[in-house]
Amino acid sequence: YQPDDSYHTCEATDAVTVFVSINGQRDRVDSFCGSDMPNQVMSTGRNLTLEFRSLQSPGNSTARGFRAAYQFVTDFGIASGKQDTSFACGFAYNSSDSTNGSFASPNWPGIYPRDTECHYFFYGLPGEKVFIEFAYFDIEGLPPCTAETASDYVEFSSARRAHHKIPRHCGMQKPPNIESEGEFFRVTFRTNDRFDGTGFSAQYQFRSVIDPYTIKRFRGGATYLQGCTQIIALIIFVEFLRFVGGIR
């Protein structure tokens, strides 16, 4: 049952409310009502609670309730890369396995879990760089995406260990296209225990920074110069012989 004046808030109406458990406390994630399909949700840890509230409705109500599917996962709903079990949430992408592909936030395209930190590691071959382009970006927060603004964020680094000197990204504005400094790149996604978003989706590509055509031209040029040097040396030698013959 859903009165007309409660469509957007799900207050005073039949609704399903989702709760997660963080540090022993039950936190409300969102409430769903109406006929629109809700976003997929994921727990922060092992527990997730759905609370269905049905109010007294008119006798002519045609509401039929809900039906849902559930699944227990250990990969945070991230289908790409190889899971790195040395991290609570870590995934590796190797150029030797695939030179391009996609990666996304946990539970994409649903609501990402709270109080979570995920790392995406990109390992290129020597002479390669990593290029990343975001197709979708919805990270709860306000620039500069610090703890003071209670923001979730995405952070980038070309260092093996994460550091906090690189500007963070949050909000709904997609970061500019990214090029790594070398063959290694790291993306860190951090969420707090307050608010939620639907996360991000991005494409990655490993590219060689050495142009084989440039190498070929350079080698060809070197061969040409070497040939010219030999011809010049031969001419000088012939002229020297003529000079010596003239003296005699």
From TrEMBL:
The keyword Membrane applies. One of its GO terms (cellular component) is plasma membrane. The chain crosses the membrane at residues 224-244. The keyword Lipid metabolism does not apply. Gene3D superfamilies: Spermadhesin, CUB domain. Keywords: Disulfide bond, Membrane, Transmembrane, Transmembrane helix. Residues 89-207 form the CUB domain. This is CUB domain-containing protein. The lineage of its organism: Eukaryota, Metazoa, Ecdysozoa, Arthropoda, Chelicerata.
